[in-house]
Amino acid sequence: MTNSITNRQMFFIIFLTLTTYTTIDLPQIMAQTAGRSSWIPIMAMSVIFGAAAMIITKLNNMYHGKVFFDYSQEITGKFFSRLIAWYYLLFFLIIGVYLKLKLVGLLKSNFLPQTPQIITLLMGISLFGYVAYKGITNIARMFEIIGALFLVITVGICVAMLLEGMSYNILPLFNVTETKEFMTKIKHLATPFTGLAVLFIIPFTSQNIKAPKVAFSTLLFIGLLYVLIVESTIMILGINNTIAFNDSFIEAIKIVELPVIERTDIFYLTFGLTSLFAGMIIMFLGIVEFACRLIPNVKRHVIVIAIGIIFFILCLFALNINNLKDVYLSFTPYLVLTASILIPVPLFIIARIKKRLHQNSGRRSPQ
Amino acid sequence: MMKCCKFLIVITISILFAAFLTGCRDSVDINDKLIATTVAADVKDGEIWFYVEIANIESGKSKDSGESAGNKYIVAKGHGKTITEARDNLDMQLNKPQYLSGARVLVFTERFAKEYLIEYLYRYRVDETYRKKGLTVITKEDPEDLYKSAHVKNASLGFFVEDIVETLDESGKSFKRTTMRLLENLSDNYTGILMPCIGLQDKEITIAGYSVISGSTVIGLLPAKESTGTIFLKADKPKFHIIVPYNDLNLTIEVLLNKRKITASYEDGKINYNIKTEFKAELMYGDKKTPYDFDDAAAREVSKTLTVMLKQQMSDAIERAQKEFECDYLQFDDIFRIKFPVEFQEMDWQKEFTNASANIDVKVDMSIKWGLDYGTYKVK
After folding, report:
1. Which residues of chain A are within 8 Å of residue B330 when distances are taken between CB atoms?
2. Which of A158, A263, B43, B216 could disulfide-pair with A232, CB 3.0 to 4.6 Å?
3. DSSP state for residue B30 in the 8-state scheme
4. CA dihedral in degrees (A3, A7, A8, A9; nearest 10)?
């Protein structure tokens, strides 16, 4: 089994990891933060994170066949490499626990109100653990199908929302008074780009030479999709309703009139849930991959079971936190910025310098 | 050792599958729920009354004796001092849980809307079991009379009212606003909206007009007969039949609004609206025997008269909103806000709207209904 993926699979991995959980509450976050001018900070952040994705993929391309944990030892030495790996492991664990609880909450409010949350937790963790055990290649193949379906359904519903919505709800597209708060609240916009670090668990090969361009375009595409989601939600619900609902995208979908389909929200969630699972699986895989590298002597299935148990216990603790979303949003932007920009950028610079020094010494040695 | 491991795996998987069966708790047959199709609310003798129309799914089934099990719709009533009390009172009479995802229309009496419009609509917003595509209408009638009128025809009040509003919207004689859109307007700093008002005409349900909502209460009624100008300013593709006098004839003309562009200007603290409209008018018939000698000159003259009439109707609609109701239900605030967002934030729109002026420009493209000839010819 070769642990490699194609650029198209990478597109869907980034797309699903970033978008699945964000789509539901992004309109509310954006309406609160930037009002009707939301498209400006979204596109600005997608360019910034697009550049970060380029750096991560370039770094991966410098060490073909190796994952981050392996090549970071060559860049920073063993100690720092292990330290960074532990950071990413904990980062994926925190994000994973939050996303898992969000998924459980969504299932409870829309599909299974009577089923104990502990059961949906258990079911999810067993499923994600099993899929994560199979490794990145199988997951990437699955993501291609799920991602394509999710993309078509989401864009289709957004277009229907644009057609049925009121244009005056999103106008004016630029309001000077709203831009004053951009800088103070820009940290909230890092959360929709959580998960970019999953690129570190993917070993690149020669077929990923164009990966930096693909990664940048993917982030721009995701930015455009976010704009489409936010604008269509505001067009249907209006700015005040969008702020009032935590899951404003789902609430907006409930109002869309589609031929034949009466419960458009259930229709969307049927496909949306598959992608929600996909997002969760990649987070679980991130934890497993880093744990396998950090504890190489333990078998993969034992690690998967141990992580499943830890994950389950952490979820049970987190279930008792009343304002979990606020707590999570208060520190996650810093974790995301560190994982996506503050760690990869210095590593990339050091790797480039080392490579250049190595090339120079290589040129001098024959003389 | 291997046997022990396999045994443990089998036990774990069995327990997991058994645990998944708890999901069956959420399995509820639709027959075990009361499907609400209409929710009506009223205030009587200082108490809130709820009237919920429930689809009687047993009605189709015949009993052992072969008799029908009753009406297609039944009405459950509950009352109390507060909305919560009234709902609890209603729930005590229901033998199964309510299913609100089928509710088509909310009907509020004017008395109820004056006091509880905001509270109930916020309740609607928070209740995720409610159907969010539903409509809200106001009535001056007793909800029980409305139910009776619909049930005589074996129809649901909710479906009936929804169909009326949708039919009028599609034919261009009215406009449709979902409850969520009302909620958006009600959540804004300035609120001025029109809500369809249903009534009874010879015991038949009809659209009596539009209730004017200013702030958070009902302040008046715009009768349907006097709302043509308002519809021309609000609806997407309004279409009406207008009778235009020409010589000794009364010509019935179908008028369709093709284009409407409203722009706002703000100079020296004065707000002005430029309303440009383009109509397509088609002569349908007259009240006298043909021939009408309806040539180009006649068309120009009728077009001129029609232009004046349409201009007057729209001008009257604006004046009525400004002077009689002092409420911007025409939603001119959005047009101004889009162009002048900063100035709008600092304004008291209630005050500014009543002083705004409007220039109305009407263009009419006159023709004869396709397939007919009302020109100059001799009767054989």
Report:
1. none
2. A158
3. G
4. 30
